[in-house]
Amino acid sequence: MAPSISSKRIRNISVSRPIIYGNIAEKVSEKNPLPPSSPSDHTHTWKVFLADPLGNDLSQYIKKVVFKLHDTYVNSSRSIESPPFEVHETGWGEFEIVIKIYFQNDCGEKNITLYHHLKLHPYPTHADIQRAGGDEEAALRIAAAENVSGHVESIQYDELVFNEPTERMFKLLTQKPGSLLPYKSDKTPFTKVAEREELDRIDKAMEEINKLVEQRQIEFKKLEEERKKIVQL
Ligand code: SLL
Asked: Is 39 in the pocket of ligand 1 (CB under 6 A)?
């Protein structure tokens, strides 16, 4: 059978769509109690999700999202067949969640797998690490003690790139304007400006690292020369 017009691919074109995925966790407390059905050793409530950063409906082209949790969970493979694509759970430990995205049958796209490390405990800041004298465990404890709200977010921005989409998929993806990352927005923290700031921070950190490496190389050279002298003696 000849392919229908809508499943024909458009050559030399790619369309990208912004996406965010990750988790939000909350420490169990009086204000945030465990649901009655949860085991009492669970310390956090959390939600893992996949969404459009601007709240657009993803089900136009996404059929379902399967979140594969740690094997300690009952029915660890959670298939979410309509938005919001998210799983609410409780637990005590961090682990890697496999997020598999399935596209609508008529989109002609293979599924995509993303990985997310479920984060329950806050990342230590540079100051926390310094205060802990470089001891990683101690730094984690400091960061946890400082995070009085018990709220932790670990959310990633990414872009789904569709190369040579089918005519139908192309239509779906380009129907609405503004599918790209907004320049500035009060609806989402994921903006072009934030991306630029993040790149600047990375550049600065790289510069610092390069400086440290250079310093170490000089120290190493000195030590090497001293060693040679000693060997010659
Ligand atoms: C860890 N490698 O040791 C990880 C495993 C498992 C998390 C984390 C609860 C499961 C249940 C849960 O939090 N599992 O309901 O039994 O940190």
From this structure: yes
β-bridge mates for residue 97, sequence order: 116
Q: Helices (DSSP H) in the chain: which residue ranges?
A: 126-131, 136-146, 167-174, 192-232
Residue among 42, 72, 120 whose CB has most ligand 1 atoms within 8 A, to mutate: 72
Per-position pLDDT tens, the chain of length 233: 555 557 889 999 998 888 999 999 999 999 999 999 999 999 999 999 999 988 889 998 999 999 999 999 999 999 999 999 999 999 999 999 999 999 998 888 999 999 999 999 998 988 899 999 989 899 999 999 888 889 999 999 999 999 999 998 998 888 776 556 778 888 788 888 988 999 999 999 999 999 999 999 999 999 999 999 999 87
Q: Is ligand 1 within 6 A of the CB of residue 93?
A: yes
Check if the beta carbon of residue 102 is closer than 8 Å to that of residue 112: no
Which residue from 43, 87, 94, 121 has its CB within 8 A of the most atoms of ligand 1, so it is best to mutate?
A: 94
What pTM does this model have? 0.82
Tokens of 109: 């796209």
